[in-house]
Amino acid sequence: MGMDDRQDSTDPGADSSTFGADVERMLGRAQDMCRRNGARLTPQRRHVLGLILASDRPVGAYDLLDRLRNDTRAAAPPTVYRALDFLLEHGLIHKIERLSAFVACRHMLHSARECENHLHSAQFLICTRCGQVTELEDSQIVHALVHATQARQFSIRTSTIEAEGICAACA
């Protein structure tokens, strides 16, 4: 746990925003998961995660910053990047490098315990026309990757695969 994990938010209104019921449920799971791991999901981190969960598309850091500012929060780029780093470190979100954007971890959406106990692996299908991103949960891909790396005496901690193409809606 880093020093940043122990800091409280100084923004008294940082947790005043309410998301929809599904997002609030997932935020509760994330809060529980962080608590079990001895980490703190501060109001600012919670709000950033809520914005990512509520989005139907990957969200960039500066889009998050704009949304935080629209919610009358005094937010600066370092604040957003620290929140994103925390969320990445704790497996709550993924960064899609190709888009320089963030999405919620699909495993976390289903079960915080499942998210804690799996090899943090993500496979993304990225439509180059509309920008839609779909996260796969293909155990065969993970198994093949683990098998190939074990043969080379390499232990995977995380993996992200980004495949670009055309989605069915754009085809």
TrEMBL record:
InterPro entries: FUR (IPR002481), Fur_C (IPR043135), WH-like_DNA-bd_sf (IPR036388), WH_DNA-bd_sf (IPR036390). The keyword Nucleotide-binding does not apply. One of its GO terms (cellular component) is cytosol. Binds 1 zinc ion per subunit. It holds the Pfam family FUR. It comes from Novacetimonas pomaceti. This is Transcriptional repressor. Keywords: DNA-binding, Metal-binding, Repressor, Transcription, Transcription regulation, Zinc. Its cofactor is Zn(2+). Zn(2+) binds at C127, C130, C167, C170. GO terms for molecular function: DNA-binding transcription factor activity; transcription cis-regulatory region binding; zinc ion binding.
